[in-house]
Design brief:
The complex is a heterodimer of chains A (about 500) and B (about 100). Chain A has about 500 residues and is an all-alpha fold. Helix content of chain A is about 75%, strand content about 0%. Chain A contains 21 helices and 2 strands. Chain B is mostly helical and about 100 residues long. The chains are: A mainly alpha (about 500), B mainly alpha (about 100).
Chain lengths: ~500, ~100
């Protein structure tokens, strides 16, 4: 039935895998003294090729491959492009901030690329086994990346916290899959939806739904499963945080959308209230937690919890608009968050010269471009008009309001107000007079890679804020193909 | 004599709960790590029981992949644990608290 060769359906994944293998083959035979940054540029090339392949996949007819486990449709292409772009910028940030003499740098780039393969599989998989394997490929790579500063005291601590809580969550996710399999006798997402209507074990499916929500809740750091986030973000290298606060989360949200809307639409009376609470709790816990942080990376960690809450609000809408709003928010959040962590990894360096908000005082004077970019990303995180963050929030909350969740909208707006406080505090620090003892004096000139990465994210945030139509149309196309698939069953 | 599927499922749920409890109570990282393995294997038992119930081999295939993933996770986990022991000389989670929760 397929006229498209199967390999085309997983072309971006194949390209990235080959890139990763090439890095692992070339890196050991390089002379010891040579800088490993060339491996970084190789991985950038591979990611660009994967990005091109993802865009090319858009013109393929919608269909499945490899025994119905992989599906290319507008939805998977949308998230493929998003994840490849995130990986691209975080690679550029890593190239510019990693110390030249670091001997494990080649592995770093290899792991980022392999992790990206897992995330891409998560978004295109329509079978729970492949979803699980993709999730684990991406998770295990990021566990290692989190612990990458292995000689520092905080590095391995961040790694082990991430690994223990991540595996704990994986076990729940897996138990949920087992229960869905037990209730329906299949692990193919569309078949689960078909058989759930006639299942004699609906309670088992509901329990499975709960377990899956716990597992994904951990992965996207939604409250009350968020405890690991601040510690892991504080202890991990900044370019890694930029990656793992966005790409694996975007992939996990895509998985959640596929499972909830693709496999379990009939159980929505159970999962809509659950998501309502997850969303409201995440927003509140994230914003209140961020208020009392002095460490910038911890503050951004709490902010990412809050943003996971905003995104989850769109899930409650139960419409194609809700899916589109969630996808759009994932893009805007990714653009501003990857961007701000690119600036943080430039200013703080690989080993976090700057940690506290006070350390950032006067950054906008010492490095006007980078400081300005950081202030711009912060304004987008607040949700000021003409930035991507504004439209992201607007679509999410209008989707929630359209479905009659007035209180969720009110909680969200109140939380945006709270959020403005701590973001503005950081902006004020950026533009205040630097103190004499500030560690800012060691800041190097921004490198080409960094300028490129920050330029791309600033441009993306601006475009999303001024002319969001194109991206929104793509998000809607993704939601529509996907919604008609689940609705036609 | 045929053992009904519910026996397997109850056993699996009990094992999973023991794993969760141990994860939350135990203070040594290696023991916490073992409790995660227990949880994964409890899930494997469920998968095999359901595979038998539905006469579907996909449940058993799942188990193989879970084992592979668990092995990979253990390799990475033990490597990180060694790195922790080198920098801290302890494996007590209460003492690995440089960054407060």
């Amino acid at each position: 039935m397929n006229t498209v060769p199967q390999i085309f359906r997983i072309l971006p994944e194949v390209i990235l895998t080959v890139t990763g293998v090439l890095i692992m083959l070339i890196e050991p035979v390089m002379p010891k003294s040579a800088s490993r940054k060339s491996m970084g540029w190789l991985s950038v090339l591979g990611t660009l090729a994967a990005l091109g392949a993802s865009l090319w996949q858009y013109q393929l007819p919608v269909g499945t491959a490899y025994f119905g486990t992989i599906q290319t449709d507008a939805f998977s292409v949308f998230f493929h492009v998003l994840i490849c772009s995130i990986v691209l910028v975080s690679l550029l940030a890593a190239i510019s901030s990693a110390p030249r003499e670091m001997d494990t740098l080649g592995e770093y780039f290899g792991l980022v690329v392999f992790g990206a393969v897992g995330m891409l599989f998560m978004t295109s998989a329509v079978e729970l086994l492949v979803v699980f394997i993709g999730l684990e490929i991406s998770s295990i790579s990021t566990y290692i990346l989190a612990a990458f500063r292995r000689k520092s005291a905080k590095g391995p601590e961040a790694g082990i916290k991430y690994l223990l809580l991540g595996s704990f969550a994986t076990a729940f996710f897996l138990y949920g899959i087992a229960m869905l399999f037990g209730a329906t006798g299949t692990t193919v997402i569309s078949q689960i939806a078909d058989r759930l209507g006639s299942s004699h074990l609906p309670l088992l499916a509901v329990a499975g739904l709960g377990m899956i929500l716990i597992g994904i809740g951990f992965k996207v750091s939604a409250a009350p499963f968020q405890v690991w986030t601040p510690d892991v973000y504080e202890g991990s290298p900044s370019p890694v945080v930029g990656l793992m606060s966005t790409a694996p989360k975007a992939a996990a949200f895509a998985v959640l959308l596929r499972i909830l809307y693709g496999a379990l639409p009939t159980l929505h009376e159970y999962w809509v209230p659950l998501l309502w609470w997850l969303s409201a709790l995440s927003m509140t816990v994230g914003n209140l937690g961020a208020l009392r942080q002095r460490n910038v990376k911890r503050l951004l960690a709490y902010s990412s919890i809050a943003h996971a809450g905003y995104l989850l609000a769109a899930f409650t809408a139960l419409s194609a608009d809700g899916i589109a709003a969630a996808s759009f928010y994932a893009v805007t959040y990714a653009a501003m968050n990857v961007g701000i962590f690119a600036v943080v990894s430039y200013a703080g360096g690989y080993d976090d010269r700057l940690t506290l908000i006070e350390d950032y005082r006067g950054l906008a004077y010492r490095a006007p471009v980078m400081g300005g970019a950081m202030a711009f990303f912060l304004m987008s995180l607040i949700g000021i008009p003409f930035t991507g963050g504004f439209f992201g929030k607007f679509y999410v909350f209008s989707a929630a309001l359209h479905s009659g969740f007035l209180w969720l909208g009110i909680i969200g707006l109140l939380n945006s107000g709270i959020g403005a406080f701590y973001y503005l505090r950081l902006i004020a620090a950026l533009y205040s007079k630097p103190s004499e003892a500030a560690p800012l004096n060691q800041i190097p000139r921004p490198s080409f890679a960094l300028l490129l990465g920050v330029f791309l994210t600033v441009a993306a945030t601006l475009i999303l804020g001024i002319v969001p139509g194109r991206v929104l149309a793509m998000a809607k196309a993704g939601a529509a193909t996907f919604y008609s698939v689940s609705a036609s069953k | 004599m045929l053992v009904p599927i519910s026996y397997y499922l109850v056993l699996s749920a009990i094992l999973f709960s023991i794993g969760v409890a141990a994860f939350l109570i135990k203070r040594n990282i290696i023991t916490i790590f073992m409790s995660i393995e227990l949880m994964l294997n409890a899930v494997n038992l469920s998968f095999v029981a359901f595979a038998h119930h539905w006469h579907q081999v996909s449940g058993q295939i799942f188990v193989f992949f879970v084992m592979v993933v668990a092995a990979a996770e253990a390799a990475v986990g033990l490597a990180i644990i060694i790195a922790i022991f080198r920098t801290r000389n302890t494996l007590d989670v209460d003492k690995i608290d440089l960054m407060k929760l």
